[in-house]
Amino acid sequence: MIEEIRIKNYLSFRDEVVLNFEATKDKTFEESQVVHVTPKVRLLRFALIYGANASGKSNLLSALEFLRSFWFAKKEDMDEETGAIPFLLDTETPAEPSEFNIKFYIGDKRYWYMLQLNERQVIKEALYIYNSVQPSSLFLRKMEGTQSVVKLNGSLVKASTTILEQLNLKCLPNMSFFAARNQVNCALGHIDQVRDWMRNNMMQIIDPNVKMFAYAGKQMEKDAELKKYLLDFIHKADYNITDVYSERESVPIPDFIRTSILEDDTLPAKLKERMLAENHIERLNTDFQHTVRNKRGVERYRLPNELQSAGTRRTFGLEAAIYEAIQSDGILPIDELESSLHPELVEFIIEHFLRKPGRSQLIVTTHYDPLLNTVDDLFRKDSVWFTEKGDDGHTKLYSLTDFKGLSKVSSFQKSYRNGVFGALPNIHH
């Protein structure tokens, strides 16, 4: 589980911002929304982020997506860029490194990962473990001249001189230590536990443009329990869908695909020949059974996914991803949850997730401010965050619990709309 995320000089975050999942002393929804990872540490399973358009909400999720991708991106040469984008609305920050810090728990063990990099190279990367109050280094890599040098803590990570030499050889200045580690056949104890957590628990961001329906169909092929989960959710959400079918179909390769293969000069000749020799491709079709009640009684009809509404398709995709997060104790970022969804369905998706036990975490951005009326009824005050962009273009991130007198607020939505919490569009009439 993530304890906190710190971001500095990345996209619209000029100054350091902190998204913290530590629960306050409030005991609301203690059993369902707070996880006791240790006797003294209580972490939240949900974060809801509000803000005007272009205020930096999506950038927060993009920072997580950047890390998820960068950790395992293998670079072919040292001329490739890292992909880090500093704050560009300033004369000084483009020359300064972007910084990321994540503190998290695997089981009851606390870790701290830090990364400093610019557009060309990693300046410093480190992983620490908390065996006591003070962190102990597991690895440290930094630039020494033009060379990226990795050092392991020999008392905590057992590795031969040969392994260390291979790690240093593979770890190009513009890539993560973890991408290099994946190219070396070895066992690195706690480092490998963290690598597996990064790979399996940090999930891809879902934004309104991500086509999730095909993902749901493929996942149902592999996991029969997912189909039961989705049908149960759809039934509770009052759809008339009573079954779903995923079947593979062999179809001829379209002419335009054949033409694109022939005209692609980057493909080797033998690969082209093999691809063109295939006369058919497999396509996954997902159909829905709708049960209706009419003058003849109860009838069932099977309709293809193309005839389902955008909301139905998005619901299936979102819930498939949420199911995966619940099963793997994953961290799932969702940008603009309300896209294509009815407001009551948005609330139900959140409620349905929070009722499931486990250590999964959901990080959601939204413009749907009526959700604020469900504070203390659906989720906790310390789950609510705001982003606000200043006149100088940089994003501030702050919590609802930063404000005093919350117990006297009769409507959090009205207070938000009246500007009490900021994070509103500055519209000039």
Q: How would you describe this protein?
A:
This protein is an alpha+beta fold and 429 residues long. It folds into two domains: 2-201, P-loop containing nucleotide triphosphate hydrolases (Rossmann fold), CATH 3.40.50; 213-322 and 341-357 and 367-380 and 410-417, no CATH class. It contains twelve helices and 17 strands. It has helices spanning 30-33, 57-70, 161-170, 177-181, 190-201, 213-222, 224-236, 255-263, 269-277, 310-328, 343-355, 412-417; strands at residues 2-8, 17-20, 34-38, 41-44, 46-51, 98-106, 109-117, 122-130, 136-144, 147-152, 241-252, 280-294, 297-304, 331-334, 361-365, 384-389, 395-399. The strands form four sheets. The chain has a seven-stranded antiparallel sheet. Helix 6 crosses helix 7 and helix 6 packs across helix 10. It starts with a strand and ends in a 12-residue tail after the last helix. The mean pLDDT is 92.
Can you describe this structure in just a few lines?
This protein is of the alpha+beta class and 429 residues long.
Any descriptors?
429 residues, alpha+beta, Rossmann fold, 2 domains, seven-stranded antiparallel beta sheet, 12 helices
Strand content: 25-35%
Poorly predicted runs are none
Distance between the termini: 45 Å
**CATH homologous superfamily name of the largest domain?**
P-loop containing nucleotide triphosphate hydrolases
CATH class of the largest domain: Alpha Beta
Q: How is the topology of this model organized?
A:
Blueprint: E1 2-8, E2 17-20, H1 30-33, E3 34-38, E4 41-44, E5 46-51, H2 57-70, E6 98-106, E7 109-117, E8 122-130, E9 136-144, E10 147-152, H3 161-170, H4 177-181, H5 190-201, H6 213-222, H7 224-236, E11 241-252, H8 255-263, H9 269-277, E12 280-294, E13 297-304, H10 310-328, E14 331-334, H11 343-355, E15 361-365, E16 384-389, E17 395-399, H12 412-417
Parallel strand pairs: 5-15, 5-16, 14-15
Antiparallel strand pairs: 1-2, 1-6, 3-4, 6-7, 7-8, 8-9, 9-10, 11-12, 12-13, 16-17
Helix pairs in contact: 6-7, 6-10, 7-10
